[in-house]
Amino acid sequence: FEAKKLKNRYCFFDKGLAEQLHQRVDIETELKHAIENKELYLTYQPQICSAHGSVKGVEVLLRWHNRKLGLIAPDKFIPIAEETGLIADIGEFVIQQALYDYAQNLKYTEISLSINVSAYQLMYTPLFDILKHHVEHYQISPNRVILEVTESIFIEDKGAVQGLFEKLMSYGFLISLDDFGTGYSSLSQMRDYPIHELKIDRSFITHIHEKDQDAALLHQIVSIAKCHDIVTVAEGIEVTAQHEIVRTLGIDIEQGYLHAKPLEIDALKAYLAANTLTQKACC
Ligand code: C2E
Ligand code: MG
Ligand code: MG
Ligand code: MG
């Protein structure tokens, strides 16, 4: 009966869908060779201390420029890298290259280095060993390194995740909860996991200067984080009015186009050289 019912179903397969599928296959095929073809490179977006305006850290943001497909956004290729397991090698490339750049250019500053790590990397690759190996090799203090994980990690086994976080934290790495408020998180996670920092998702920031309710919600998030001694970061600060509110609410760090876009390492160096407050760590 089921089979018959299925047989009579129509399959809506329009041109848009076919194109999407093609694009996905193209991305997957090309992504397999992205590292060896040297198509991946890193950009760094400055993170600013809200109260003082000094540069507190940088977030590593991966870029992929493919010879056939052009520049592809990470929101497009990272999910495919995760599904195919390619994120294991890509993630290690990011870690190695970022720590190399850091050692070459930022070692004698107090700037922190935030690296995005996928749940896949945490659960299915020897992430701790990889990080430890590279920080030892480049002689970088692990407490300069912040690992940004998204809430998707909380669908994994709680005990296992807690164990992995604790191993990373006890060595000195710091853990940041990225895109906070968009996914599976609940406030109890601030209590149950050793989280150093909360990155409040851009969607909570966008309208704070236009909607009182949004500002009130942000205020509540910040109050709870502060109760748990967790550093707060506001993502996606684009205009001065947002910066003013964020600073007034006592959010520690800001990141967004108002301050700087993601920069390649040479542009980052120039940016830092122009910012005299750089060497002061704040949070
Ligand atoms: P994310 O970690 O939440 O990174 C913040 C994203 O917001 C970045 O997008 C950044 O360029 C963008 N952004 C920063 N300031 C502003 C602003 O003021 N306005 C707007 N509209 N956007 C802003 P990007 O670089 O396209 O990266 C997208 C996502 O891809 C990242 O979100 C992260 O989840 C993922 N990703 C990037 N690099 C890596 C990586 O090396 N490994 C992994 N696993 N994921 C990565
Ligand atoms: Mg991030
Ligand atoms: Mg984010
Ligand atoms: Mg994101």
UniProtKB/TrEMBL annotation:
Residue limits of the EAL domain? 24-276
Protein origin, superkingdom = Bacteria
Protein name per UniProt: EAL domain-containing protein
Recorded source organism is Pseudoalteromonas spongiae
Parent sequence residues shown: 437 to 719 of 719
